[in-house]
From TrEMBL:
GO terms for biological process: L-arginine biosynthetic process via ornithine. It holds the Pfam family Lyase_1. One of its GO terms (molecular function) is argininosuccinate lyase activity. This is argininosuccinate lyase. Its EC number is 4.3.2.1. Belongs to the lyase 1 family. Argininosuccinate lyase subfamily. NCBIfam families: argH (TIGR00838). Residues 366-435 form the Argininosuccinate lyase C-terminal domain. It is an enzyme of class 4 (lyase). PANTHER family: ARGININOSUCCINATE LYASE. SUPFAM superfamilies: L-aspartase-like (SSF48557).
């Protein structure tokens, strides 16, 4: 009967609870394809060394192909003793091609370099997929920004009305975060994409395997050179979860804005029914659950990062079983991030913008800075104009008129004689206010379109 991979020195069986506690198969089986691919290339490397003959190699590759089909058709039969994906695939290979030949595939290899290799292949693949859907999300941002360029809204600081901006400008503020996520992701993929294969358990390969060959066959860009590091380095796991944490943080802030904007008090946006839920008690309710989950799940991804950092801290050299704890938080983070990108894409591409509500939320006092700038253009120092404009705001308050734009020219001139006839047309116009901010990165139409085209170039 089949002996466990490491059973030679053992006499007693394992405590059944310990077997469960020890097994990673329930969650690492999703790396089946990476594991088979790794073994395929590794055995080709052994063949190059003369450690496998042509027949043995072709049998192994045939067997690996059969196993892949079984996994893909959901017919791989799992056994009680399958400790992890590596032991399960090797057990199955023995059943298909016979243990005589299957027993040779692990020559010079350890599950330590094997699991590190599998994970890097798997994570690389997931991150490439994430990159693709992230670009799709970004393209929704820029398309909306283009189409809805004319919509004006209040911009906030401290969540208090500050200055008028374009809705598109607000959208692109989040797209800008996502652009740096995209760039960071590309750099991350490069660091994930290094091969630990051919390092054995820790000390290196005793038959001089061609690690460069293994790496290039597996699509890696280079090696994790030092064999001790290669088997124990999980920085790529940490970095992936950090990447996810920061990305989710961006989605979380974006969601928070939209949750506020979707309240009846704001009414700036309406979420599509497809991304909302109702209340079991209050018939009138329409809740932004999608956004709340995007906001809430950022905590979960960061929690995984923090937890695994604690696991890594103080681990002694090379492989320790603690490292098996990398998988669940990592896989959970990858799934959470992917799902969140898809949900955010759905939410953003279906929500309705209430341009008139946004416009109605603009108030003339949001133009107080523009009023100050009006006098700056007449040569008055800004510090002075700031005070003058403040005095105008106060006057409007004292006179209980509904905004600084309701003051007559005489009243304005009572504060400062340099206000002229043109003040009304020049200052009290939201569109003009926005259009004056035309330096790079500003909220004027031209500056927003410039942002759109900068982002488009990256997609
Ligand atoms: N399932 C293990 C893990 O995920 C594979 C490596 C086992 N290596 C060992 N020396 N026990 O880390």
């Amino acid at each position: 009967d089949f002996k466990s991979l490491w059973g030679g020195r053992f006499t007693g069986g394992m405590d059944p609870l310990m077997a469960l506690y020890n097994a990673s198969f329930p969650y690492d089986k999703k790396m089946y394809a990476a594991d088979l691919e790794g073994t395929k290339v590794y055995t080709a490397g052994l063949h190059k060394l003369g450690l496998l003959n042509d027949y043995e190699l072709s049998e192994i590759h045939r067997g690996l192909g059969v196993i892949l089909k079984e996994w893909e058709s959901n017919s791989f039969e799992e056994k009680q003793d399958d400790e992890d994906i590596h032991t399960a695939n090797e057990r199955r290979l023995g059943e298909i091609i016979g243990r005589e030949i299957a027993g040779k595939v692990h020559t010079g290899r350890s599950r330590n370099d094997q699991v590190a290799t599998d994970m890097r292949i798997y994570v690389r693949e997931q991150l490439i997929e994430i990159k693709k859907i992230l670009k799709e999300l970004l393209s929704v941002f820029v398309s909306r920004a283009e189409v809805e360029i004319d919509v004006l809204m209040p911009g906030y600081t401290h969540l208090q009305r500050a200055q008028p901006i374009r809705w598109s400008h607000w959208l692109l503020s989040y797209a800008t975060y996502l652009v740096s996520d995209l760039q960071r992701l590309e750099q991350l993929i490069d660091r994930v994409n290094l091969s630990p294969l051919g390092c054995g358990a820790l000390a290196g390969h005793p038959y001089g395997i061609d690690r460069e060959y293994l790496a290039s066959e597996l699509g890696f860009n280079g090696l994790v050179t030092n064999s001790l590091t290669a088997v124990s380095d999980r920085d790529f796991v940490v970095e992936t979860m950090f990447w996810g944490s920061l990305f989710m943080n961006h989605l979380s802030r974006f969601s928070e804005d939209m949750i506020i904007y979707s309240t009846a008090e704001f009414g700036f946006i309406d979420l599509a029914d497809a991304y909302s839920t109702g209340s079991s008690l209050m018939p009138q309710k329409k809740n932004p659950d999608s956004l709340e989950l995007l906001r809430g799940k950022s905590g979960r991804v960061f929690g995984g990062l923090a937890g695994f950092m604690m696991t890594l801290k103080s681990l002694p050299s090379t492989y320790d079983k603690d490292l098996q704890e990398d998988k669940e938080p990592l896989f959970d983070a990858l799934t959470t991030v992917s799902h969140s990108i898809l949900i955010a894409t759905g939410v953003l591409s279906t929500l309705k913008v209430n341009a008139d509500k946004m416009l109605a939320a603009l108030t003339p006092d949001m133009l107080a800075t523009d009023l100050a700038d009006y006098l700056v253009r007449k040569g008055v120092p800004f510090r002075e104009t700031h005070h003058i404009s403040g005095a105008v705001v106060r006057l409007a308050e004292v006179m209980a008129v509904r905004g600084i734009d309701k003051l007559s020219l005489e009243e304005l001139q009572s504060v400062d004689a340099r206000f002229g006839e043109d003040v009304r047309g020049e200052v009290f116009d939201y569109e003009k206010s926005v259009e004056r901010r035309n330096a790079i990165g500003g909220t004027a139409k031209s500056a927003v379109f410039d942002q759109v085209s900068r982002i488009r170039k990256l997609l």
